[in-house]
Hints:
Blueprint: H1 8-13, E1 23-24, H2 35-47, H3 58-78, E2 85-88, H4 91-103, E3 111-115, H5 124-133, E4 136-140, H6 150-156, E5 161-167, H7 179-188, E6 192-196, H8 208-211, E7 215-218, E8 229-233, H9 235-240, H10 265-281, H11 283-300, E9 305-308, E10 319-324, H12 329-338, E11 341-342, E12 344-346, H13 351-356, E13 364-368, H14 375-386
Parallel strand pairs: 1-11, 3-4, 3-5, 5-6, 6-7
Antiparallel strand pairs: 2-8, 7-8, 9-10, 10-13, 12-13
Helix pairs in contact: 2-10, 3-10, 4-5, 11-14
Bound molecules: pyridoxal-5'-phosphate.
Amino acid sequence: xxxxxxxxxxxxxxxxxxxxxxxxxxxxxxxxxxxxxxxxxxxxxxxxxxxxxxxxxxxxxxxxxxxxxxxxxxxxxxxxxxxxxxxxxxxxxxxxxxxxxxxxxxxxxxxxxxxxxxxxxxxxxxxxxxxxxxxxxxxxxxxxxxxxxxxxxxxxxxxxxxxxxxxxxxxxxxxxxxxxxxxxxxxxxxxxxxxxxxxxxxxxxxxxxxxxxxxxxxxxxxxxxxxxxxxxxxxxxxxxxxxxxxxxxxxxxxxxxxxxxxxxxxxxxxxxxxxxxxxxxxxxxxxxxxxxxxxxxxxxxxxxxxxxxxxxxxxxxxxxxxxxxxxxxxxxxxxxxxxxxxxxxxxxxxxxxxxxxxxxxxxxxxxxxxxxxxxxxxxxxxxxxxxxx
Length: 389
Ligand SMILES: Cc1ncc(COP(=O)(O)O)c(C=O)c1O
């Protein structure tokens, strides 16, 4: 069944932030937020601001309800139970916390496999742990189209592999991974499958149970919500690992043991609103719109722009990393910025893939197309790139 076409004008009317001539292709570094998310954040601070602990008065009761509700909404969003989710400042902070807790079970010589498509938020926590506990970190390589090389992943696995950390999609070049196969290989080696869904999350639904991952992290500020991190881990892991926590903080539910200190309650209110916003649009409409925008971008990309990663919309999301012959990535981004076109340049902390491609000196240009992007914005971007030829 073909999904109902997305009414982009109606979508954009829900975002005051989009009511300006700037064309936002910077979604991969953080999407704009609809007004209902902003209103939910302000509404909490205006009407329900309190801390947890003594729910004997209205605002404290409302805060407890909100925190409970946010965990339930997160659980439905990820396909797990509310006991298995933890909020934090961002993905990186949560990943350091979870990897540290998991690391207490690891022994000298144990191995972690990461991929060259990962953001450093999915690599550095393991490198730091390896340094402290004499572990070994191995890297699974990419093939010529910048897809994860599954044969190389298999070569990196051994009887000592304890964790396979991987992104669901590359934040630098948009490549999707074959998650079921990566999970299967990780589990066959006796390792945990530790997914980074930060870049994937604005582009499609997540179901941790169907994916079979043991841990998964994402960041609501990449999917129309506020600056927050969100993690899932299997209940038995959360119960078995020993978190770094203060003694008076509750020992249950298990996910909450990993939430250090007071949560950003107002941002949880924004998160709940962001998930409500996404449901009101629907993944089918979002995916169809992003695919058609992506096809338009790929068909119109001038020959002097060299695309990195898969050349069609199969096997990728609508995030495009590329270089422009004869121009530095920084100069391209500056030229586009002067024309009111917001793209990013650099390595986007995806240092391994940018280095692997030999582009670490100047970096790459990145244009992220999301569901609020219009076809005329894509055409403006293509025309501006053509003019650089
Ligand atoms: C794929 C990926 N993983 C991890 C991160 C880090 O996320 P956070 O900023 O929430 O720490 C990012 C941020 O851009 C990302 O794109």
